[in-house]
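Thread amino acids onto this structure.
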């Protein structure tokens, strides 16, 4: 898992966080987050896609 969860993130059981995701501080992740996305909130919602110059999907 090459993702970036920030401070005080709660990930519930059985949830998958995709490659290179960014999860905002104080978020509660209750659903799977697809690769290369930013998610935040309680419950966490996908906010936008992240583009990396050398990323391979």
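Threaded sequence (57 positions):
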């Amino acid at each position: 898992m090459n993702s970036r969860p920030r401070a005080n993130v709660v990930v519930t059981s059985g949830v998958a966080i995709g490659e290179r995701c960014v999860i905002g501080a104080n978020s509660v992740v209750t659903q799977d987050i697809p690769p290369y996305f930013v998610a935040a909130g309680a419950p966490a919602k996908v906010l936008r896609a992240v583009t990396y110059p050398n990323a391979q999907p």
